[in-house]
Design goal:
The complex is a heterodimer of chains A (144) and B (942).
Chain A (H helix, E strand, L loop, with lengths): L2 H18 L4 H21 L24 H32 L8 H8 L27
Helix pairs in contact in A: 1-2, 2-3
Chain B lengths: L1 H18 L7 H5 L1 H20 L6 E8 L4 E7 L1 H24 L7 H20 L3 H19 L6 H32 L4 H10 L5 H17 L8 H4 L5 H10 L3 H14 L5 H20 L5 H21 L3 H32 L7 E3 L5 H15 L5 H15 L5 H26 L16 E2 L7 H19 L2 H14 L16 H18 L1 H16 L4 H23 L4 H20 L15 H17 L3 H22 L2 H22 L15 H28 L5 H13 L4 H9 L1 H23 L14 H24 L7 H27 L4 H21 L9 E6 L3 E6 L1 H23 L5 H14 L1
Parallel strand pairs in B: 3-4
Antiparallel strand pairs in B: 1-2, 5-6
Helix pairs in contact in B: 1-3, 1-5, 3-4, 3-20, 4-5, 4-11, 4-15, 4-19, 4-20, 5-6, 6-7, 7-9, 8-12, 9-12, 11-15, 12-14, 13-14, 13-18, 14-15, 14-18, 15-16, 15-17, 15-19, 15-20, 16-18, 16-19, 17-18, 17-19, 17-21, 18-21, 24-28, 25-26, 26-27, 27-33, 27-35, 29-30, 30-31, 31-34, 31-35, 32-33, ...
The chains are: A mainly alpha (144), B mainly alpha (942).
């Protein structure tokens, strides 16, 4: 991979990550798109410097060494289509969010907020009982 | 067979628990089956186990568990295990019978208690028959867990919950330490078999830091389990459990697991310099402190609990000292203790059951019909106190003799400790008896709700008292005729110390130092009893300074609440509810993990620019990516993302990847339409109200990710040059035509070489399509009529265009095996055609294109692909094996294709289906009234 392509990949990842850390679902979706492109760039360039399209003549006349690596291309193709599926699903999430709240904000996790606000500490529920002072008696009327 | 007994316990216990309240208290009758079977198995074999004496006659069984890790369940019953088995199974039967009397009415939860008791009995049996250290650990932990459930069975009682929690936290922590220690011992000895450890350490006595630490860890487990000081707090607390449970777990069996382990290890580990001082000191403190505390109790059950702690300390001393004659005494004591302590607990349970109190101050007189209970109490307490002619006396006598004659350093101190502890034991045994006989009653302790028990308590039925009578009677019989336990005790001693020759067990050993010490114990003990009022005052004076100090109990809970409090504090910081913050933490860690391992490998050998065509293409990508990141209008950002995609497509062309380029072009077109459809309803701008993550942090993490990816990309491509092995791609290029019958290698990979992956992928697409429709259509009930203005010119040209694009998509589909194209590209092109129709005519126009609905196309696509994959299997081939066939098509000519084509048709249909689903989801005109409904519903429900 050339330095130029590595820089572009890095930029796509950095922009994508920055967008992921936002509250707007739209921005997150765009961030995922950029991350997808960055990943595809990594994948395709992992096949080397490129070459002629990997199409082999049936008569065996093709010089295989001049062809681009087909495997990363197959992987990237899969990735492109899956990213489309993910984008569609996230858009549906945003759409649903708009239906409910009129916006596409990613709200805080309610359960975690609740947990944070809970101030009580779980200690021993019963009075601590050393079993030692003479007055201690376990009131257990079991069995009866 | 041995393993079957363990399985029987587990199955029986589960069955009882499942049967639940239908079985009720009768569960205990069923539970008794398990220990009875154990006894029926053990007793006929006892002769051969004891005969060998040298351990050669042990019954063994091995079950392979994880063969690769040399993990096996090695079961082995030698004489020592037989002693423990007799205790576990014998007292198990007695407890089950006793429980039938104790739980006279069927309260809910009783069957669960009985089932758990059975599971516990199985686990305890496992502990004493395991010959493998790790199997022993598993059973050990199982006893802790069942003990937790049994103590906390009454889950509405906060005391029971606290006690259960305390017990499992202490024994569980000790168990974990023990696991580490056992692994260290096993690894350094080269074997995990307890029976083989003896030979290993006989050749090479244990020494060194590793074994010392390992032994300390194991001892931690043993000390916590056997309630040794300072971990003894949980045992008195555990007395909230019903008395049959306390009798079985917390007096007779489970708490002896630690002692048992020490008994097994002592002969091996006593060579370690720290072993004897440590074990004997801990045992001594436990014995004295337990006895001292027992003397102060007014609750008979708690008195016995402290007495148990004291006796466990005694056992720890005599087993831990590591000499055979003390071990022989210990075997007698462990048998005697099992019998008398179980009997005493049962007596307490009977009193509690009949009078509803265990407070000695309120027991003035039990009344008529209590003679059997009283006699039992006296006999069992006498055995505990070490009064002849009971088994407890013989054990104590042996211990005193062996200690007094002991030749190791500290033997004198040990003797003094045993004498002092025994005096206390005598005193609290007497206190117990006096309590039962009403001599400690004190009218000031009674009130209207807690009346005095004065001769009006109903006498217990015979069946209820029988188990206690039998156990106390066995103490007496074994004391009078020690020959009944002689063979067992001697064989067990030899099992622990193979080279020893223990003396026979007799009641009258002649006039020796032990006898004189016994006399001293009894005399001083009796004096303490007579001067008990003064003793109580002394105890109060001594305790006053201690009262303010942190007790083990309070320290334990302080530790627990402290841990919970700091956990909460940490949770509050790291889990504040903001998802972007979570993501930032994950990305930050990931970036560091990316950079750190490879940063040194960058060597600057990478060329700057590969092809000058890259420069304008990448300039477009960079500009559009930055634009997509910084613009503040949604639609603009989406279009910028599209521009990035088109730039990438250009790059794919340069790189020699026409399939990718086609796919990317089609996708960008589709995605742009989808974005517009969704974003039209959302507010135009982003305008973040609250920044989720402070901006500088966000930028820093993003930049770190960028740097990490940059470094990784360079290092990865540099290391590619170093690889000499041929690439898999080379083989794929070679075999594409002969094996895959296709020239387009990318397509052959997708439908043939890696066809199963593609099948997985289109399944994901199907799920995504269903998700999209499900999410977007949830709130919608009615659909408004289209308000779109139709233009005849646009309609006509769209129709024309649609037809030609559809034909193009079919061309891509059919030609894809040999030329750029394929199912994905074809499907996406068809999707683009559908978009055109949608833009011109709305969702109704899209629907009228096809005779069927979107999900039918989506599903049938997957079905076609799956069938193509599966049919070769049915015909005897492998998954996705393809056949070649030729087809004469009118006007087109001979079509040579493989059965990869139907697979690709499936892919095509799934992609078309997904696009249709997206339009189904977002394409309808929106009825604002319905949305309002949905919002109000959501508000009400949240």
């Amino acid at each position: 991979m050339t330095v130029l392509l590595a820089l572009v990949t890095a930029l796509l990842f950095a922009c994508g990550s920055w967008l992921l850390m936002q509250r707007r679902l739209t921005r997150i979706i765009i961030g995922i798109g950029l991350l997808g492109h960055g990943a595809n760039l990594l994948l395709v360039t992992s096949g080397g410097a490129g070459g002629r399209p990997p199409i082999v003549a049936t008569d065996g006349s093709t010089d295989l060494a001049t062809l681009a690596d087909p495997l990363p291309q197959a992987l990237a193709l899969t990735a492109i289509v899956i990213t489309f599926g993910v984008t569609a699903l996230l858009l549906a999430l945003g759409y649903r969010s708009w239906q409910i709240t009129g916006d596409d904000m990613v709200e805080d996790d309610v359960e975690d907020r609740f947990l944070e606000r809970r101030r009580t500490i779980d200690g021993p529920e019963a009075e601590i009982d050393d079993g030692d002072p003479i007055t201690s008696e376990l009131e257990v009327g079991d069995g009866a | 067979m041995l393993a079957l007994i363990l399985v029987l316990h587990a199955v029986l216990g589960t069955v009882i628990i499942v049967a639940g309240d239908r079985l009720g208290r009768r569960g205990f009758a069923v539970a008794a089956i398990a220990p009875i079977v154990t006894l029926a198995w053990l007793v006929p074999r006892l002769g051969s186990v004891l005969d060998g004496g040298d351990g050669g006659a042990a019954i063994t069984q091995q079950l392979s568990w994880v063969a690769g890790l040399d993990l096996a369940i090695d079961l082995r019953v030698d004489a020592m295990s037989a002693v423990m088995l007799l205790l576990v199974a014998g007292i198990g039967v007695m407890v089950c019978i006793y429980a039938l009397g104790y739980f006279s009415s069927s309260k809910p939860g009783l069957a669960r208690l009985a089932g758990l008791l059975t599971v516990f009995a199985g686990a305890m049996t496992g502990v004493v028959v395991s010959d493998h250290l790790l199997a022993l650990f598993v059973f050990w932990e199982l006893t802790s867990i069942t003990s937790y459930a049994l103590i906390g069975n009454d889950d509405k009682n906060p005391k029971a919950r606290d006690a259960a929690l305390q017990a499992i936290l202490i024994t569980g922590a000790g168990g974990l330490a023990m696991l580490a220690g056992l692994v260290m011992i096993g690894q350094s000895a080269g074997t995990y078999r307890v029976s083989e450890l003896a030979t290993v350490f006989a050749d090479q006595p244990p020494s060194g830091a590793v074994l010392t630490v390992a032994t300390l860890l194991v001892l931690l487990g043993a000390f916590t389990k056997s309630a040794q000081w300072p971990f003894s707090g949980w045992l008195p607390g555990a007395m909230v459990a019903p008395t049959p449970i306390s009798t079985y777990l917390h007096a007779a069996t489970m708490v002896k697991a630690g002692v048992y382990l020490v008994a097994r290890l002592a002969p091996l580990m006593v060579a370690l310099p720290m072993w004897r001082p440590l074990v004997v000191t801990v045992g001594s403190v436990t014995m004295i402190a337990g006895g001292w505390r027992a003397l102060r109790q007014v609750d008979l059950k708690v008195l016995l609990a402290h007495g148990t702690v004291s006796q466990l300390g005694f056992l720890m001393i005599v087993f831990g000292a590591g000499t055979y004659d003390l071990a022989q005494a210990a075997v007698i004591v462990i048998l005697a203790h099992g019998a008398f302590k179980a009997a005493l607990f049962m007596v307490v349970g009977i009193i509690d059951h009949q009078t509803h109190t265990r407070d000695v101050r309120r027991l003035a007189s039990l009344g008529d019909g209590w003679r059997a209970v009283k006699v039992t109490a006296v006999v069992a307490a006498a055995s505990m106190a070490g009064v002849p002619p009971l088994l407890g006396f013989i054990g104590k006598e042996k211990a005193l003799l062996a200690a007094a004659k002991g030749s190791f350093a500290g033997a004198v101190i040990l003797t003094v400790v045993i004498v002092a502890g025994s005096i206390l034991t005598f005193a609290y045994s007497a206190r117990f008896v006096l309590g039962v006989f009403g001599r400690l009653s004190d009218h000031t302790a009674a009130d209207a709700d807690h009346p005095m028990i004065d001769g009006d308590a109903p006498a217990p039925p015979l069946g209820f008292t029988a188990p206690a009578v039998i156990l106390a009677g066995s103490s007496l019989i074994a004391g009078l005729f020690p020959v009944v336990v002689d063979a067992l005790v001697r064989a067990a001693t030899v099992a622990l110390h193979p080279t020893s020759h223990p003396k026979p067990v007799v009641l009258w050993a002649g006039v020796n130092i032990a006898l004189w010490l016994s006399v001293v114990i009894i005399v001083i003990g009796a004096a303490l009893v007579f001067a008990r009022a003064r003793v109580t005052r002394v105890q109060q004076v001594v305790h006053r300074p201690f009262a303010a100090m942190p007790t083990a109990e309070r320290s334990f809970w302080a530790l627990v609440t402290g841990a919970l409090r700091s956990a909460k504090r940490i949770t509050r910081i790291v889990q504040n509810g903001s998802l972007p913050v979570y993501l930032m933490v994950i990305l930050g860690v990931a970036s560091v993990a990316l950079i750190v391992p490879v940063i040194g490998a960058v060597d600057g050998s990478s060329p700057w620019i590969g092809s000058w065509v890259h420069v304008p293409v990448m300039a477009l990508v960079v500009a559009a990516a930055i634009g997509a990141t910084v613009v503040h209008r949604r639609i603009a950002a989406a279009l910028m993302l599209g521009a990035v995609g088109y730039g990438m497509a250009g790059f794919y062309v340069v790189q020699g990847a026409p399939d990718l380029a086609l796919t990317q072009f089609a996708i960008e077109t589709l995605a742009t339409v989808l974005f517009v459809l969704v974003l039209r309803v959302l507010p135009k701008g982003f305008a973040d109200r609250v920044p989720a993550v402070t901006a500088p942090l966000r930028v820093a993490v993003a930049a770190m990710i960028g740097v990490g990816i940059f470094v990784i990309a360079l290092v990865a491509s540099q290391s590619r040059d170093a690889v000499t092995a041929p690439s898999v791609s080379a083989e794929m290029l070679e075999r594409s035509v002969p094996d895959g019958k296709g020239s387009n290698v990318v397509n052959v990979i997708l439908v043939d070489f890696r066809g199963l992956d593609t099948l997985g992928e289109i399944t994901v697409l199907l799920v995504a399509g269903l998700g999209v429709v499900a999410l977007a259509r949830t709130a919608r009930r009615s659909v408004m009529a289209s308000t779109l203005l139709r233009s005849p010119v646009v309609d006509a040209s769209v129709r024309l265009l649609f037809a030609s694009i559809a034909v193009l998509s079919l061309y891509f589909l059919f030609a894809g095996h040999n030329q750029p194209g394929g199912g994905f590209v074809g499907g996406l092109t068809a999707g683009a055609a559908i978009s055109l129709v949608f833009v011109a005519g709305g969702i109704e126009a899209v629907r009228s294109l096809l005779p069927t609905r979107a999900w039918v196309i989506l599903g049938s696509g997957l079905i076609v692909s799956v069938l193509t994959a599966v049919v070769p299997m049915v015909l005897g081939g492998s998954v996705l094996e393809h056949a070649v066939f030729e087809l004469d098509v009118w006007l087109i000519g001979t079509l040579k294709a493989t059965s990869a084509l139907p697979f690709d048709i499936g892919v095509y249909l799934v992609v078309v289906g997904l696009v249709l689903m997206a339009y189904e989801a977002f394409g309808e005109e929106i009825d604002e009234a319905d949305i309002g409904d949905a919002r109000s519903v959501a508000e009400v429900s949240s």
